[in-house]
Design a protein that fits this description.
Largest sheet: 7 strands, mixed
CATH topology of the largest domain: Rossmann fold
Helix content: 25-40%
Strand content: 5-15%
CATH superfamily of the largest domain: P-loop containing nucleotide triphosphate hydrolases
Radius of gyration: 27 Å
Structural class: alpha/beta
Number of helices: 18
Number of strands: 16
């Protein structure tokens, strides 16, 4: 049996550390070698107390712990559990070296023997697979088949002893119930279809309209329509949250919210993952996007275009909203807008044309009469989720040979994939004419038309699909959909 630990050293990927223990006769002592930092050297007292307070006897001989590879610096407290287990196994009468079993451990020990997760502990699960470990002992629940939840040192020791005799059965946590998407959204059928389109193709969405029409509510539901993260994306999300010290989100895409109070340093941190990376595989919601600072907007644009925020992956879709005018009355039948045309134009220039171009969908949310909605016409959430999943599967198959792409809305991360959509591009150019300026606008229109066709289960993009895509992209550049100020 080999014991491995997981060190914080190594940045986002962490460092897998082998742990060996030698107990020999001599003056009682406890030494750790292999370039440990101060935190690991201090673990000697935590480990000693945890072993004794868990009902075990700490060896009265000389104890030597070796951490390898010896040339790598090790840091953090996550090696506590592995060090303690290696001492207990070395002092037991069982010859663990005869068993071809590798165990990954990650957890900090309290003086009483409890195991608590530390920063980056979640990365141990993926590190265990790469190291060929058949068992991973971690102080949190996960649906990974090789991971086993333990809460204290006695549990961890018992699992190791059972593993020497028989395979360890992993107990999966109960299946989480899906959160309702549109249970409290009355009417707004066209808006729901737009959200499905954004989720199916991973297209960023920008909603605008008067206050109180439901823009923020709709933006906050977008991640609930996204398919579950899987494969490399799910692994990256787990490790990102491990680096941040936050609880594991599971496979459901996350929603992270950026507001006027969010600074550029909180979005893109040089050390810990910022809001951009925490939204990886999910949605970054930009509330009142026109009020965000220019520096923050530049950080968001950089992360969106590159797929990275600092040192961490950050492939997210944006869900933004703003009022349509400074006074908030434009477009309402029961109020009079007092904004001048110059004031209105200045208001819309705040997000910037370059930023708005990155939203494939720009949709006006108009006031409507909720009392006039027919309750029998309401569709269940499964109707919308099934359409999104079907379209998403088509795209996953389409881009299976392209790195970093799994949906139409991610083509900007690898523009070489546009060659798959050359026919669609010709159709868009022929229909839009001078309305398409620049490569970014062309890619946005082509990929959105492709998603509209995917939602209709059409193998080929037709003219009506392009018309729908161009309609959804036209707003935000001087056309505010209300033609006159009152």
């Amino acid at each position: 049996m080999k014991i491995y630990g997981f060190s914080n050293k190594g940045g986002y990927s962490g460092l897998t550390v082998g742990i060996e223990c030698d107990i020999r006769n001599g003056f009682p002592g406890f030494d750790i070698v292999g370039l440990p930092d101060t935190g690991i050297r201090e673990s000697k007292e935590r480990v000693r107390s945890a072993i004794r307070n868990s009902g075990f006897k700490f060896p009265q001989q000389r104890v030597l712990i070796s951490l390898y590879p010896a040339w790598e610096n090790k840091s953090g407290s996550l090696l506590d559990l592995g060090i303690a287990l290696s001492i207990l196994l070395a002092s037991s009468k069982v010859n663990a070296s005869e068993h071809a079993l590798n165990i990954m451990t990650a957890g900090e020990l309290t003086l009483g023997g409890e195991v608590v997760p530390g920063p980056q502990a979640l990365g141990a699960v993926s590190a265990a697979e790469k190291a060929g470990c058949s068992l991973c002992l971690v102080p949190f629940r996960t649906d990974n088949a090789s991971a086993h939840y333990i809460s204290n040192l006695r549990q961890a020791y018992a699992v190791c002893m059972r593993a020497l005799e028989e395979p360890v059965m992993n107990v999966l946590p109960p299946v989480e119930q899906q959160e309702p998407v549109f249970a409290d959204v009355i009417g707004m059928e066209e808006e729901k279809d737009v959200l499905c389109l954004a989720a199916a193709g991973f297209h960023s969405m920008f909603l605008f309209g008067p206050p109180g029409v439901g823009k923020t509510l709709l933006c906050s539901r977008l991640n609930l329509l996204l398919p579950d993260n899987s494969g490399e994306t799910a692994d990256e999300v787990t490790r990102i949250y491990g680096c941040s010290g936050l609880s594991v989100p599971g496979t459901r895409p996350m929603m992270r919210k950026v507001t006027v109070d969010t600074g550029a340093s909180a979005f893109c941190s040089s050390k810990l993952p910022g809001e951009g990376s925490l939204a990886h595989g999910g949605v970054l919601m930009l509330d009142e996007v026109n009020k965000l600072s220019p520096k923050l907007v530049e950080s968001i644009k950089t992360a969106y275009d590159s797929g990275f925020s600092g040192l961490y992956p950050a492939k997210f879709l944006m869900s933004a909203n703003m009022n349509v005018c400074p006074c908030g009355c434009l477009g309402r039948s029961d109020a009079v807008c007092t904004c001048t045309l110059h004031k209105l134009e200045s208001y819309w220039k705040r997000p910037g044309t370059a930023f708005l171009e990155r939203f494939d969908i720009r949709f006006p949310v108009k006031p409507f009469d909720m009392m006039g909605v027919d309750p029998t016409s309401v569709k269940p959430d499964s109707f919308y989720r099934d359409r999104v999943l079907d379209a998403a599967e088509r795209q996953k198959h389409r881009y299976r040979d392209f790195e970093n792409i799994g949906a139409n809305g991610q083509v900007h991360l690898n523009p070489s994939a546009v060659r798959l959509l050359s026919r669609e591009a010709d159709l868009v150019v022929s229909m839009a004419g001078a309305g398409i300026n620049g490569q970014r606008n062309l890619i946005g229109a082509v990929t959105l038309a492709r998603t509209v066709a995917d939602m209709d289960q059409c193998a080929d993009v037709k003219e009506e699909h392009v018309e729908r895509a161009l309609e959804l992209r036209k707003y935000g550049f001087g056309d505010y959909y209300w033609k006159e100020l009152r």
